[in-house]
Each structure stands twice: as structure tokens, then as C-alpha cells.
Design brief:
Beta-carbonic Anhydrase, Chain A, 14 helices, 5 strands, globular, binds cobalt (II) ion
Amino acid sequence: MLDHLFDRNLAWVQKKRLDDPDFFRRMGEQQSPNYLWIGCSDSRVTANDVLGLDPGEIFVHRNIANVVHTSDMNILAVLEYAVVHLKVEHIIVCGHYGCGGVERALSGESTALVDHWLQPIVMLYRKHRTVLDAIADRRARLDRMCEINIELQVRRLASTPIVEQAWLRGQELHLHGWIYGIHDGLIRALGAPVSSLDARDTLASIDARIVEPVEPVSVIRQHAIAAFEGLDSLEPPEGLDCCAEHSNRRPAP
Ligand code: CO
């Protein structure tokens, strides 16, 4: 049963060893990723793939709709390990457009365990239902809610004692809210990173972001898409070629 997965594993090992004979020896050493990824469990959004990173380069936590529950032992244990022991410098909350979890939160359904999980998004939607329902296009409303959910989770993350203590210790720690487009593979940053208690405390409230967005995030996304027109014909920018980057890190032969 599932022989095809073992076959794929073998093929992957063979390819890795061909491309980089030293790969598994390096993997056997202690991991030292510089990023923590908090993403959705959606099978189409895998951190290493969308960022072009190798195993060992990013510490990952995923759950439905990338929710930061401050009573969730799972995420808190991951967060503490990443911040206190791995000392990652960047935490990325990356949601995605068309998120089924966020869509569920907007549906009014409340019959499953997942509806408990999604409660922070449900509450936010209920509170601002008039504004959000005024977005007539169903897909646009969902996408706006996907963006707002990421902003909400970054704020929740920034309010955890683990992150607060890191900043109070003077540890370098940047919180990023990103969104991934499943339909084009592109990631966009939603605003500037949050890198200190002061920065957190001067963020616009999530309510304000919904009611009076200074610039709707969706517009930022439109600009990003425009900037990426013709992407297919472009070579990857220098420094973004992951293979070149990794080869720099390898010990001299
Ligand atoms: Co999702």
C-alpha cells in the first residue's frame, strides 16, 4: 500500500544525492533555520516549495486558516522553540487567497469542530459584517477577508508573551504578514514587518483596517500583479537563485 510514495521518496533521494552529494550529511547536523512559517494546512501552500528553500531552512507550523490561538499549546511550543532556541529572526504568517478556512468562517456554519477553530475570524466578520458584505463580489469579499485575517494573526502573534519577551531582551525578531496567490504562485507582503513593541503598539487596529483602510490591501496586490507582468520572460533576479545561494554555503570541496 502506498508503494508509489516510497518509490517517489527513493527517486527524490537519488536526485538529491546526484545534485548535491553532501546534502544528507549536512541535513544530519543540527538545524539552524532563520525563519518560522505560520501557514495554512492547505495542500497547495507548502513553505519550502513556494519559497524555493531546502529542508533545514525554514521551521514550519501549519493549521487551518493560519490562526494564532494564544491558548494553542501546539503553536506556542513551536513559537517558543523557534524564538528562544533556534533564534529565528523572521516569523512569517502566510495565508493565501481563496482560503477554504476563511470561506467557512464567512459561511455562518457552526456545526463542526473547525468552527471553534475559526472563531476569531467568525467574530471579526460578524463585528464588521455591514462593511464586509458591502463588497458585492463574493470572491473579492473572501480575498479581502483572507488579507485581513493575516493582519489579525500578526497582531495576535505580536501580543504573545514569547514575542514580547524576545523584543524586551533586545532580540532581533521581525513579524511579517504575507499572502500567497494559489493561481499565480506569487507572494505579497501585507504592509511593513513588525519588529518592536513600539511598532506593534502604533499599528492601526484591525477594526480600523476594516472600516477605514488607508489603502486597501487588495490595491497593493493589484500593484504587485502589475509589477510582475511579463514575469515569465524574466530571469530570476540575482541573489534569488536558490541553487547558487546554497552552493555558496557548502564547504569547499
Ligand atoms: Co487555507
